[in-house]
Amino acid sequence: MEPFTTLSAVAAPIDIVNCDTDRIIPARFLRKPRASGYDRWLFHDMRFDASGNERPEFVLNQPAYRGARILVAAPNYGCGSSREQAVYVMYDYGIRSVIAPSFGDIHYGNALQNGFLPIVLSEEQCGRLREQLHAAPGASISIDLAAQTVTGPDGARYRFDIDPAAKERLLKGLDDVGLVLQHIERIEGFEERYLAEQPWVAV
Amino acid sequence: MARTLFEKIWDRHVVTHGSGGDALLYVDRHYLHEGSFHAFNALAGAGRGVRKPAQCFAFDDHYVPTAGRERGSAGVADEEARGLIENIARNTARHGIRHFHIDDPRQGIIHVAAPELGLTLPGFVINCGDSHTSTHGAVGALAFGIGASQVKQVLATQCIWQKKPRTMRISIDGALGAGVSAKDVILAIIARIGIGGAQGHVIEYAGSTIRALGMEARMTICNMSIEAGARAGMIAPDDTTYAFLAGRHFAPSAAAWEAALGYWRSLPSDSDARFDREVGLDAAALEPMVTWGTNPEEGAAVTAVVPDPASVADPLRRERMQSSLAYMGLTPGMAIDAIAVDRVFIGSCTNGRLDDLRAAAAVAKGRTAVVPAMVSPGSRGVKLAAEAEGLDRVFRDAGFEWRDAGCSMCVGINGDQVGSGERCASTSNRNFEGRQGKGARTHLMGPAMAAAAAVTGRITDVRRL
Ligand code: SF4
After folding, report:
1. What are the beta bridge partners of residue B442?
2. B49: pLDDT confidence band, cut at 50, 70 and 90?
3. The complex's ipTM?
4. Nearest to A73 by CA among B322, B316, B315, B201
5. Is residue A28 within 8 angstroms of chain B, CB to CB?
6. Cβ < 6 Å from ligand 1: which residues?
7. How many other β-carbons are positioned within 10 Å of the β-carbon of residue B46?
8. Is residue B406 within 8 Å of B380, Cβ to Cβ?
9. Looking at ligand 1, which atom is closest to the CA of residue B131?
10. From ligand 1's centre to the CA of B132, what distance in Å?
């Protein structure tokens, strides 16, 4: 996993409340191999019309936002399915962080597994950031994970919370499997007792 | 100290804690499907194996066609879908994982077939790379969906890192009116608390209404916990649960049954256990529910009218509602039961069980579908049981298509799709834009209501039929 430390980049506003994972990537693309690159499927049906042409009104199709690496979204971003492809599409497009007032729980967890930083700020703070991004298309936001801060286009700084373990993993780019297997002796001890007490687990 | 059902299961499965305070949980059951290929690829890429293959079970569900199944995977016309079906067969064979493949008589949607086989048991921690894993909580298990990276993690270790969620109890008391089903209960809950309403929480459904429900209805309710944003949904095990489990293929055999039962009886929340949030609902006030918008909270009683965005103060939410109504082609103020539908889908992990098919068949019997209507049983077990009592004939005689088992038109990736601009009365769980096909318009409802829509061609209050 690629570590996440700091990021200063163009940010794009996504104004959709409850932006579900079916919008982020429609189900018909879930079957594609990862190696094929997922950037094309990001927000596919909002981004492209029926004949595959870009819809000029969609935010990421506007020249100033094209290089966006950060999204600022509305409440309950990424609700719905567990598809991790909803992170792959953003990652392969070049996006590394979404700032939103709240996230679908599974999507939030999936993001952290991919060197991708989901940031929770208040509804009011996210609203202000989106307004600024609309007012000055192409404006940048800076993120510092170690300091847990977001700096808006106007220089205002916001602090965000993140689980310390998740932060550590992101900063170092650590893989979860390795972190579990550090505890393999404990797991084996637990398992031996547990399966002896509940023999119906192993069938 | 008094503990909830959730806390008892959680505590029992903590192997250790991480430096940040999150828990490493032991996983009893790990369910897999064709969509798990990303995880298997990542596992292979990391050069890792499957630590406990005997606790993993795979089902073909998302990509299997529901017609022409005699030829097994060779009969899957869609090459990419066939590739995924063959891929899970190869991966499970390589790692020694049991697999209920496309032509196995026990095949079905995981969330229907696994409980039916007795794989899902009280007190278990259950994971699957699918958000509707919450379904399995209906037997008194802690079951939650995970993404591909965590599927890889569970395959490699049989454990999962988790931050402890908060708890929420939703109590429903009283008797449900005639024609009001479990689907209506959960749609009413979601309309009330919102699709982000249970974020970060595990819901325990409690109260006299829940206690009176059978296992299948309980599964319908737990299934849609994720539609309220919950991490999981669960219901305390009781005699209904034990009667459902007894004798199922993978349930504890006679020798272990008493010991298992003893443990299961210790699981229900202590009477003085505290929840972080409490919500109460009066069952008698509930009516058949129908969604009018493009997420599951955008629903109302069938007797209501399509709401007016002008009544919403917050501009973002007002815009969202306007765009939902535009997508759905509806105008504020129109009666919900005046909405004409183009097709009907009865099935999915929410409403593809035997009781659901019985409820739909009771409405279809002696009537005729006036729009295309498809019934896809949630599993081949359900299909066989339904055929044994003649439900297939009832549906066929009424002009409904009787299909094989799979996710089918719930998500449309097996080819069973709703056309662009078409309006579908569906017993599935998500009405997101494009969910049943690009441009598809979905109205979620219960199985009897969907059958009523099929025979009238519009959304109809089944109580007045
Ligand atoms: S029936 Fe629908 S919701 Fe259920 S597992 Fe299949 S695709 Fe998911």
Report:
1. B424
2. very high
3. 0.95
4. B316
5. yes
6. B 61-62, 109, 111, 130, 132, 348-349, 407, 410-411, 428-429
7. 12
8. no
9. 8
10. 7
pLDDT of the residue at B75: 87
CA angle A51, A53, A56 (to 5 degrees): 135
The CATH number given to whatever domain includes residue A44 is: 3.20.19.10
Both tokens of B234, joined, read 């669960």
What count of Cα atoms within 13 Å lies in the side-chain half-sphere of residue B258? 1
Put residue B434 in one of left, alpha, beta given phi > 0 → left and psi -120 to 50 → alpha. Answer: left
Domains and CATH numbers, chain B: 5-162 (3.30.499.10), 166-285 (3.40.1060.10), 289-464 (3.30.499.10)
Tell me the backbone φ, ψ of residue A139, rounded to 5 degrees. Answer: -65, 155
Residue A183 belongs to a domain: no
Band (pLDDT 50/70/90 cuts) for residue B286 is very high
- Which chain A residues are within 8 Å of B161, Cβ to Cβ? 165, 176, 179-180
Dihedral sign computed on CA atoms, order B249, B250, B256, B257: negative
Give the domain extent around A51.
6-172
Chain B residues inside the 8 Å CB shell of A91: none
Return residues 141-170 of A near B (CB < 8 Å): 163-168
DSSP B269: P
Domain count, chain A: 1
Residue A1 lies in a domain: no
Using DSSP, state whether B34 is helix, strand or coil: helix
Neighbours of B132 (CB within 10 A): 28
A196 touching B, CB under 8 A?
Answer: no
| Contacting residues for B339 by C-beta, under 8 A, at least 6 apart | B292, B330, B423, B443, B458, B459
Q: Is the pTM of this model over 0.80?
A: yes
First-to-last alpha carbon distance for chain B, in angstroms, is 52
* pLDDT, tens digit, 9 for 90 and up, residues B346-381: 999 999 999 999 999 999 999 999 999 999 999 999
Residue A175 at interface with chain B, using a CB cutoff of 8 Å: yes
Q: At what angle do helices B37-45 and B148-157 cross, to 10 degrees?
A: 60
Asked, for residue A177, whether it belongs to a domain, the answer is no
Among B338, B341, B339, B359, residue whose Cα is nearest residue B350: B359
A142/chain B closest Cα distance in angstroms: 25
Task: Identify whether A184 is part of a domain.
Answer: no
Nearest by CB to residue A79, choosing from B133, B229, B250, is B229
Partners of residue A73 in chain B, C-beta under 8 Å:
none
Report whether pLDDT(A111) > 90.
Answer: yes
Smallest Cα distance from A178 to chain B, Å: 9
